[in-house]
Amino acid sequence: FVIHQVAKKRHRYPPGPPRLPVVGNLFDFPASYSWLKFAEWARQYDSDIIHFDIFGIHFFVLNSADVVKEIFENRSQNYSDRVAAMMAQLTGWDRNWGIAPYGDGWRLRRRLFHQHFRPQAVTAMHGEIKKGACALVQMLLDDPRDFARTVRNVSGAVTLNILYAMDFDPHDDARMEAVDKALHSFMALIQPYLVNFIHPLRHIPSWFPGAGWKRQAAVWKKEVDALFEKPYYEIKAAAQAGTAKPCFATSLLSDNWDKLDDPEMNEVLISVLGTAYANSDTTIFTMRGFVRAMVLYPDVQRKAQEELDRVVGRDRLPDISDRDSLPYLAAVLKEVQRWRPIAPIAAPHMSSADDVYNGYFIPKGSIVIGNTWALLHDPTRYPDPDTFNPSRFLRADGTPDPAVPPPEEIWGYGRRACPGRYFAADAVWSYAAHVLAACTLAKPRDASGKEVEPTEEHEAATFLIPKHFEVSVMPRFDGAEKLVQAACEATE
Ligand code: HEM
């Protein structure tokens, strides 16, 4: 208690870059690849917790597994809130309960989501995932030119079929494009819009010079509202007419049948379903990283394929029930996500009350960031961390090494940790296993026969989502295409 009072009184913050009056560290804030700068500050100031502030808003970055465990796990009650982003409200993205404040509304949505996405419930989705995995390899072998789009269509179709029984065909590019349009604005929200810091700006009229962001927000709002509302009202009408196929939506509707006239309950269900769709994009990004790693490291690809040949053979495609018998493949997927985690700083949390950690004061309303990158590139946990080496997770006999921590931090932290992880892990495993079983991935060659390297660039500076790159996809053995064809037919 005494330490608490002293730290609070003196406002002793953890070390960090020196600040300027009023603006604080505005000019130090790394707009891109921030996790690298945060890790560098942690080394420079010799502290696994660092601090900076912007216009009086306090930021704390946690750079080690120990401090993350203490703050996000042991004190999760205090570190599970989110920052209210004004731009999210203006665009309608505040329906995504992943950015909702910590409270009853969030709790109810998370509970409804979890009932259908806990590990046992996800088993019921394996049929749809398998169907998607077969379609994925078939489409890749047919036309490998834009694998990122193929992955998007398949993953989107699987999710929409599970959520709303949409009967989505992944070949239907135009329909997918229309549904997907709104998702792009979610990524754009990450930009540091001034209105997020200075809320009264929202009252500026749209025609005002410099208020382009407000006009943009209004355009996005229409798309975002449609993304959340359209499929919900369609499936609700079908359920009420007795014609809906079973899916996550029908199950939510039937659990709440007597409350469907209540606008608040409709709002909850719209938010639960739409959020599941919006957040499932991460599966697509993970697959892009996987394909890039396989193209860059053909020896790893070959080794995983040898394991598949040994365990599954070439007469059938792998099934999720094979997962435990394929430890090298599991290690490859762990390493893909450790080496280049798609969300290197997860999603920032916000503290709900004043706190003291290790003698440092953390005021209420602070933004607290877990530096996932730093944890997954900590040389004491993962020696030679920048090297892509799936074998680091295995013992000499090829079995999983329990002494090496799996990269659990990719799912975020504490009470806000990703609730879609069981579905995501099963889907990613299935897609990756199918691709490796049936296809050989390689760098394509340009007109002069020279190999084209996949890009090192990323879509947004706040995530590690590889930008578009070309890949050559070939059937891995004679008969692979036939096998895929038969597997696809069997899932219909
Ligand atoms: C490989 C794929 C995925 C990765 C790497 C991933 C990662 C994450 C991360 C880092 C967070 C933030 C956690 C935090 O604040 O500490 C998160 C939150 C969330 N994820 Fe995922 N995710 C994936 C797939 C999915 C899928 C497929 C769904 C839905 C079906 C989903 C639904 C959510 C939701 C709803 C939240 C917000 C949770 C909350 O704020 O309480 N995720 N995810």
TrEMBL record:
One Gene Ontology MF term: heme binding
Subcellular location as annotated: Membrane
Main location class: membrane
Cofactor dependency: heme
Gene3D superfamilies: Cytochrome P450
CDD domains: CYP64-like (cd11065)
Keywords: Heme, Iron, Membrane, Metal-binding, Monooxygenase, Oxidoreductase, Signal, Transmembrane, Transmembrane helix
Annotated pathway: Secondary metabolite biosynthesis
Keyword Signal assigned: yes
Binding site for heme: C418
GO CC terms of this entry: membrane
Keyword DNA damage appears in the UniProt entry: no
Family classification: Belongs to the cytochrome P450 family.
Protein's recorded name: Cytochrome P450
Organism of this sequence: Phanerochaete sordida
